[in-house]
Specification:
It is a single chain. The protein has 263 residues and is an alpha/beta fold. It has a single domain (3-261), classed as TIM Barrel (Alpha-Beta Barrel). The protein has ten helices and eight strands. It has helices at 15-24, 42-55, 70-74, 79-99, 117-133, 151-161, 171-177, 181-188, 216-225, 244-257; strands at 3-6, 29-33, 58-63, 103-106, 137-141, 167-170, 192-197, 231-234. An eight-stranded parallel barrel has the order 1-2-3-4-5-6-7-8, surrounded by five helices. Helix 1 (15-24) packs parallel to helix 2 (42-55). The radius of gyration is 17 Å and the shape is globular. The mean pLDDT is 96.
């Protein structure tokens, strides 16, 4: 397992500047969170690749900017919008491939009257196949208030998709969804391919690692026993720290705390 830092931790700093900041700090793995459609252009992606290659940082995953529009674009009844939506996901898969990233991460749709759970799972599988054809693996993230923010839905999705089930598990989203990240790992097992790391307390559900109460050692031990073979990214909101020194210090402390799990 590699532990890295998502560029989203520095939002609203521009994406290329965020990648440069993370790279200059000596972080060896990252997730690139795109924030505008203009960032899908070839020249911009080439700039990101030059930064990553120049500093030797591994891009593990990419996160689309259309997260808030996915219900409307991908999980509605309007076929023309769906075609536009999947064309963007095709581009994200191509970008992932260009950057050497394995995963594209999806928030997905919110519950609606258009699709039941099985209809949602089927639509996800169609998009996942397109992503696979273009060089990446699509992961469903467990975002609270979205359809997949519910542990029962995640379990149903795993059962429906079988060996093709693939998830990004976000610790803070588990907390917001009212269930334990440990329970999520026990249920989803090795279908979890990627993890978003944060800490929490009674008062705060999104903190820098090792600033709260979460037992990372026990969590990664359970991940290892459950067959997890992916990587993990620190992913917190900008209000979780005052300056980037705090972010990178927490990252370094986490590496030392979990060094026996690192490869």
């Amino acid at each position: 397992m590699k532990i890295g830092i998502s560029t989203s931790c520095l939002y609203p700093l521009e994406t290329e500047k965020s990648l440069l900041c993370v790279s200059k700090a000596g972080v060896k793995a990252t997730e690139i969170f795109f924030n505008a459609n203009c960032e899908l252009e070839k020249d911009f992606v080439a700039e990101l690749k030059n930064i990553a290659d120049g500093y030797g940082i591994s891009v593990v995953s990419v996160h689309p900017t259309m997260s808030l529009a996915e219900s409307f674009m991908l999980f509605s009844a309007y076929e023309r919008r769906y075609e536009e939506g999947i064309s963007q996901y095709k581009r994200y898969a191509e970008i992932a491939n260009e950057l050497g990233a394995k995963y594209v991460i999806m928030h997905g749709g919110k519950p609606n009257k258009v699709l039941d759970n099985n209809g949602y799972f089927c639509r996800f599988a169609q998009i996942a196949e397109l992503v696979k054809e273009n060089g990446a693996v699509l992961l469903q993230e467990n975002v609270a208030k979205f359809r997949a923010g519910n542990l029962d839905v995640l379990q149903g999705m795993k059962e429906y998709l079988g060996k093709d089930a693939a998830f990004c598990l976000d610790i803070k989203q588990c907390v917001r969804g009212g269930y334990s990240p440990f329970d999520a790992i026990r249920i989803l097992k090795d279908s979890v391919k990627h993890i978003h790391i944060s800490d929490n307390s009674v008062e705060n559900d999104c903190m820098l690692p090792l600033n709260g109460r979460f037992d990372f050692q026990a969590f990664f031990e359970l991940c290892e026993k459950s067959g997890f073979k992916g990587d993990a990214m620190v992913e917190v909101y900008r209000d979780a720290y005052e300056n980037t020194d705090e972010l990178f210090s927490a990252y370094e402390r986490l590496l030392k705390k979990t060094e026996k799990f690192l490869k």
